[in-house]
């Protein structure tokens, strides 16, 4: 490790914030510095940076003179100059990233929408309105189109767009193409004109690994096609960001994004949020601000942009001034120029064969072909005395070819002492492909007697992206000196140099045949040895005592070295030592992070610790030309434990566009975990939970402020400490699995595989906990804050089993029309993850109890880890957990079983064998093609083969449940069964309490549909249910079971329900072809985020329940939601009665309720209700006639644009074989088929109403509801019925686990 630099005399360190690191001006050879905003340009700076790359940079040195000032406000007039709205800009002025017409109409169809005059708005296209001029130019059936996730019947690409994060947002997509030949889908931008040197293109793409063979982004300019980026994956899940720098492009060009599929890659990919930033050239101005340069084309550029090797004016006049003619530029096109003593560097041409990470173009010409620039000479190695010449050969640059263990060294000639002047070196570097690569710049002086040890002036380290980055150093020295550039290449990476520009005050020492005695000889050998670390360990390993610590054990929060050297530079720092805790700047723009000494007044002042002489990490000016925000990162860290947190002091003062944030970088994913809440101008302290993370991850501070804005604007951090991050250190809290979340999250912690997280929430509004109705619970809401990840994980630390069997109980809440799946799994080291329990779709606006038995191997001592997974299926709804408890002993049998996660404890006996199976492969020997739960081939069910070879005629196959707890009231057990077309035999249902009791026998012939069976159960002691399949001896026959449910109360008649205890067999499964939305179940007393009726119809109170659907979630991609009955037999005349409620404002009714009869012959709408009805229950009835088996479907849909308002149903009654009585049609009822009922006498009607009210009141007094209202919950003793809390420790009564 080379010594860290001390400030050279008389060269001061880079001025940072003014008087305290927040202001500062300064002059250079080109004049004073001012704001960087180009006059007249609508190229604003962004407010945030979201990039998939990992980059880092050393803090070892600072520029010796002031870099350009950074300003968030324009230096000149902003926007257009009052042109009429119907102006016609010339062709070269359209699509040039500058608004020449009022309203920016000349930039509206250019691959983006014209920017607004609001500062900070880039030229962007989100595809929400139209394709912005992007066109599909594919030559095969594999092509691009504008699409949205909810608009297609089959979701082939992303489930949401990137702009909105929902299934209602638009993007460009290419679907699957099932051809047998390789195909490429090509999306091309309109013709664009003139991109500035700072032009940057950002976009987001979505491509699951294995779907596409290759993605490619190309730029076509004249006859040359330049590959900006290409990748064959693998790509991570979700949307990925791509950022590329286009560089200076003259005249017309186009950008294309292509996806290639072959025989094995079917190819689904999407593109969204295309942004052009920093692409506009400055516009002509009559007068330039003070300190700016007036270009030949009348544009204005800042003085620091002169002679920097880039065409900032647009006509190259800023590179052809008298000052520039005295600079010496080396672009490596013809050699090394005045630079010599090259060791480990090689000239490389951009058009030749190269490493994948190598630059695809040089910086000098921004071209693969090396085409000379028009209007300006091609700068080669030239001095003021040598004429310029052009070369049309491929562009060249210098690339490090040294081994990672040795640096590549490039030495300048020896320069004369600069005296009072600055010798300035501007250079462009390229670090890409590895987080371990680095570029360092040293100064070596020759004082009388002997040369001095090289002093580090600049260090760039890590992944800086596939772009050429500008930097500059200014040197004042009283002695002759040399400049050394050394490059260390990381595995798979590249370090490159181009365009080394020396100012006129860098005067070489006259050449002498031999150096005078005592002076430094130019031979590189003795000097190079001092640049190599002397260490007996392998490269990348840390030496401490007799140990060599490998890189993967550095910063893993576990001490390997006795003195802890392996954990010293891992993020924790007060920034007093120069190493700065391992934080390294990774900025590529006009701001950077650097250590700054606190001053007595101004800005952060005394620093975070209060010491006036202390150091802190602060924003400073820099010489980069790309992304303006500054970034600083830790080394690779991890793995970390769930309690890992970062404490810090921070200072932030900026305008509304500024920010200071902390980001966790993991692979290609960036997760913001903290942002400074407001601009205060004072030091504050905060703590940020980092949580359990996999290795490697890095922490990154990112910030953007206007250092020249009003007030002491700036950003700084100090006293950063990482605490409790060891993944192996266990605390007492880690073993607390039982938790009501009132105090904290106990032993549970959120996983960080996606940006969606479980959060501990206090009861308020529509969200309430289960424990008391006013406490805390865990919530997963994909919209607050917006999250685009597929789901969230909630985990425990590894736990030691307390017994061979343990019962885990919990309460869950699944509510919303598009909520997804909640799963419980267990992990054991060395074993595959075991799924214990799962629920999908909405389960009503209600807390439900669930439990699962954990089985452990006796005596193994193996620990286990519990995991709740919330998997999103859309963007409307929430998941919640509360009151988790674990206790030794088995659980009772579950009241609900879908067989999706397991066999639910059912055991098979008898000669035949019941098996849990799925027909996902389509090759199942027997059984239904789909299950009932998901109605897909991937779903699971229980099935028994009834063929004679498996189960001879008259033999029995039994399926027996685990023990159920005693019932305190009558209950209804429902199940869905499927019989083969060929008569399989008989399905018998028995209830075993004291002895076996047959309660149901089913022997009807089967069909293609699942049918609902129900059994009334009364049991005062523990009991089991037994399903017996009695074989009929018929080949290729079977019996299948799915979706068992035990609910309180007697079983209702088929297709009839008052919805007090549940849905009574009505299915609300979301249909993808309709948008994937579900009807929900709620009550007026239950707080909800969706509008709903205040009372039900059955009871007429807020405690009663109903089903409802909020039509406001529907849009062009979601068309309807269905509520379906069980299959019903053919009928010549039956009556369907129901009560419905609509909640739309008068004269703004948009929803529609329809009744559909669905059968094998198709669908027939038999009733609909629209009109202007609101806030009252209305009766609907229709006579049903069907010649074949059918289902009744209630469809909630739209008759216009989306509008907030619920459609609700209650007291549905199907009277099989009974025609409807002829009642007066309710207002708003429209009979589309069947006869209209006649009028019944008013006395009879009054009698029926009284009977219904009496019956409803009796049910309310007698039944103990499975989901009490919030008011009922509050009336019960604090806590909940199966868990007793003592402080925050949870115990489980024996009644839940004791089978006796």
UniProtKB/TrEMBL annotation:
Stretch list, region Disordered: 1-70, 350-383
Bias (Pro residues): 1-15
Disulfide bonds: 288-300, 295-313, 555-570
Transmembrane portions of the chain: 1239-1261
Record keywords: Disulfide bond, Membrane, Transmembrane, Transmembrane helix
Organism: Mustela putorius furo
Family annotation (PROSITE patterns): LDLRA_1 (PS01209), LDLRA_2 (PS50068), MAM_2 (PS50060)
Endpoints of the signal sequence: none
Name of this chain's protein: Apical endosomal glycoprotein
InterPro entries for this protein: ConA-like_dom_sf, LDL_receptor-like_sf, LDLR_class-A_CS, LDrepeatLR_classA_rpt, MAM_dom, MAM_domain-containing
One Gene Ontology term, aspect cellular component: membrane
Gene that this polypeptide is encoded by: MAMDC4
Domain MAM span(s) in chain numbering: 123-281, 328-508, 571-727, 737-893, 895-1053, 1055-1222
């Amino acid at each position: 490790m080379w010594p860290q630099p001390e400030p050279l005399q008389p060269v001061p360190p880079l001025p940072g914030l003014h008087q305290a690191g927040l202001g500062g001006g300064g002059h250079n050879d080109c004049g004073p510095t001012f704001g960087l905003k180009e006059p007249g340009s609508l190229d604003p700076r962004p407010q945030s940076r979201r990039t998939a790359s990992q980059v880092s940079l050393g803090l070892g040195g600072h520029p010796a003179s002031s870099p350009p000032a950074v300003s968030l406000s324009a230096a000149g007039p902003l926007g257009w100059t009052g042109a009429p709205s119907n102006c016609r800009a010339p062709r070269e002025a359209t699509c040039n990233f500058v608004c020449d017409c009022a309203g920016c109409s000349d930039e509206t169809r250019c691959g983006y929408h014209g920017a607004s005059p609001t500062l900070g708005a880039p030229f962007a296209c989100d595809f929400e309105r139209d394709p912005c001029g992007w066109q599909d130019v594919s030559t095969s059936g594999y092509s691009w189109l504008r699409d949205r996730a909810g608009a297609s019947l089959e979701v082939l690409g992303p489930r949401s767009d990137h702009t909105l994060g929902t299934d209602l947002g638009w993007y460009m997509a290419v679907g699957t193409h099932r051809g047998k030949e390789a195909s490429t889908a090509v999306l091309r931008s309109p013709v664009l004109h003139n991109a500035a040197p700072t032009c940057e293109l950002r976009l987001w793409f979505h491509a699951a690994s294995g779907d596409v063979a290759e993605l490619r982004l190309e730029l076509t300019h004249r006859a040359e096609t330049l590959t900006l980026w290409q990748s064959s994956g693998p790509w991570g899940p979700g949307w990925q960001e791509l950022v590329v720098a286009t560089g200076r492009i003259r005249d017309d060009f186009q950008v294309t994004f292509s996806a290639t599929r072959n025989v094995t890659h079917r190819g689904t990919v999407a593109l969204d949020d295309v942004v052009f930033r920093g692409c506009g050239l400055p516009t002509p101005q009559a007068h330039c601000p003070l300190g700016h340069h007036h270009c030949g084309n009348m544009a204005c550029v800042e003085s620091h942009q002169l002679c920097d090797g880039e065409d900032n004016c647009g006509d190259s006049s800023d590179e052809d001034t008298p000052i520039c003619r005295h600079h010496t530029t080396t672009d490596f096109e013809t050699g090394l120029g005045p630079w010599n003593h090259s060791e480990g560097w090689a000239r490389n041409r951009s058009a030749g064969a190269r490493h994948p990470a190598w630059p695809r173009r040089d910086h000098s010409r921004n071209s693969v072909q090396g085409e000379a620039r028009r209007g300006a000479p091609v700068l080669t190695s030239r001095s003021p005395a040598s004429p310029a010449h052009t070369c049309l050969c491929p562009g060249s640059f210098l690339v490090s070819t040294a081994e990672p263990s040795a640096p590549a060294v490039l030495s300048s000639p020896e320069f004369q002492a600069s005296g009072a002047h600055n010798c300035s070196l501007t250079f462009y570097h390229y670090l890409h492909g590895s987080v371990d690569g680095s570029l360092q710049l040293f100064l070596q002086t020759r004082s009388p007697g002997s040369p001095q040890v090289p002093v580090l002036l600049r260090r760039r380290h890590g992944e800086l992206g596939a772009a050429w980055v500008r930097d500059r150093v200014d040197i004042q020295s009283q002695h002759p000196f040399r400049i050394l550039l050394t490059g260390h290449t990381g595995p798979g990476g590249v370090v490159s140099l181009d365009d080394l520009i020396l100012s006129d005050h860098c005067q070489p020492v006259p050449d002498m045949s031999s150096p005078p005695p005592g002076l430094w000889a130019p031979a590189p050998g003795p000097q190079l040895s001092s640049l190599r670390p002397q260490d007996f360990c392998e490269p990348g390993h840390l030496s401490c005592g007799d140990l060599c610590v490998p890189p993967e054990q550095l910063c893993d929060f576990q001490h390997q070295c006795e003195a802890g050297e392996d954990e010293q530079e891992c993020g924790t720092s007060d920034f007093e030592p120069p190493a700065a805790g391992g934080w390294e700047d990774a900025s590529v723009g006009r701001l950077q992070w650097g250590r700054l000494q606190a001053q007595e007044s101004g800005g952060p002042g005394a620093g975070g610790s209060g010491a006036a002489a202390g150091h802190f990490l602060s924003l400073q000016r820099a010489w980069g030309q790309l992304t303006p925000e500054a970034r600083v990162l830790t080394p690779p860290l991890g793995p970390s434990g769930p309690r890992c947190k970062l404490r810090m002091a921070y200072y932030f003062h900026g305008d509304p566009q500024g920010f200071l944030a902390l980001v966790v970088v993991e692979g290609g994913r960036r997760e913001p975990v903290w942002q400074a809440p407001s601009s205060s101008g004072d030091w504050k302290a905060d703590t940020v939970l980092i949580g359990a993370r996999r290795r490697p991850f890095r922490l990154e501070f990112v910030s953007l402020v206007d250092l020249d804005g009003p007030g002491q604007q700036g950003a700084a951090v100090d006293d950063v400490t990482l605490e409790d991050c060891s993944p192996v250190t266990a605390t007492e809290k880690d073993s607390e699995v039982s938790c009501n979340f009132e105090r904290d999250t106990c032993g549970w912690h959120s996983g960080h595989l996606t940006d969606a997280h479980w959060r501990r929430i206090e009861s308020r509004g529509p969200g309430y906990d289960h424990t008391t109705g006013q406490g805390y619970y865990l919530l997963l809401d994909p919209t607050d804050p917006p999250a685009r990840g597929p789901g969230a994980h909630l985990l425990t630390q590894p736990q030691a089993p307390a017994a061979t069997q343990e019962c885990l109980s919990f309460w869950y809440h699944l509510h919303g029309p598009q909520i997804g799946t909640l799963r419980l799994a267990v992990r054991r080291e060395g074993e595959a993850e075991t799924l214990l329990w799962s629920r999908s779709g909405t389960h009503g606006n209600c807390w439900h109890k669930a439990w699962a038995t954990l089985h452990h191997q006796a005596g193994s001592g193996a620990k286990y880890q519990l995991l709740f997974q919330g998997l999103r299926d859309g963007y409307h709804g929430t998941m919640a957990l509360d009151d988790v408890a674990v206790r030794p002993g088995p659980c009772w049998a579950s009241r609900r079983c879908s067989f999706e996660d397991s066999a639910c404890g059912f055991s098979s006996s008898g000669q035949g064998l019941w098996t849990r199976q799925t027909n996902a492969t389509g090759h199942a020997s027997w059984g239904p093609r789909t299950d009932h739960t998901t109605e897909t081939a991937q779903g699971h069910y229980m099935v028994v083969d009834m063929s004679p070879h498996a189960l001879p005629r008259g033999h029995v196959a039994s399926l027996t449940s685990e023990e159920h707890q005693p019932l305190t009231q009558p209950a209804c057990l429902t199940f869905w069964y499927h019989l083969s077309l060929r008569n399989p035999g008989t399905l018998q249902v028995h209830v075993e309490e004291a002895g076996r009791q047959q309660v149901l026998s089913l022997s009807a012939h089967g069909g293609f549909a699942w049918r609902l069976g129900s059994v009334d159960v009364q049991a005062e002691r523990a009991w089991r249910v037994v399903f017996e399949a009695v074989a009929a001896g018929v080949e290729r026959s079977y019996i299948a079971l799915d979706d068992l449910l035990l609910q309180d109360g007697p079983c209702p008649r088929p297709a009839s329900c008052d919805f007090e205890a549940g849905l009574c067999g009505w299915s609300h499964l979301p249909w993808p072809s309709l948008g994937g939305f579900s009807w929900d179940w709620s009550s007026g007393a239950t707080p909800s985020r969706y509008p709903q009726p205040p009372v039900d119809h059955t009871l007429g109170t807020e405690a009663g329940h109903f089903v409802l659907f909020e039509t406001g979630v529907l849009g062009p991609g979601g068309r309807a939601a269905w509520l379906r009955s069980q299959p019903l037999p053919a009928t010549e005349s039956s009556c369907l009665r129901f009560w419905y409620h609509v909640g739309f404002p008068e004269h703004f009714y948009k929803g529609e309720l329809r009744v559909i009869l669905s059968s094998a012959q198709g669908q027939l709408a038999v009733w609909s209700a629209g009109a202007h009805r609101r806030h009252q229950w209305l009766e609907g009835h229709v006579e049903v006639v069907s010649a074949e088996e059918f289902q009744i479907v209630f469809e909630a849909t739209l008759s216009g644009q989306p509008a907030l308002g619920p459609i609700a149903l209650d007291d549905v009654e199907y009277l099989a074989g009974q025609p409807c009585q002829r009642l007066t049609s309710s207002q708003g009822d429209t009979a589309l088929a069947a006869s209209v009922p006649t009028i019944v006498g008013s006395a009879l009607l009054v009698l029926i109403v009284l009977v219904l009210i009496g019956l409803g009141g009796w049910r309310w007094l007698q039944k103990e509801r499975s989901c009490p209202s919030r008011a009922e919950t509050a009336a019960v003793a604090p806590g909940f019925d199966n868990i007793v809390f003592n402080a925050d420790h949870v115990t489980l009564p024996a009644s839940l686990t004791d089978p006796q």
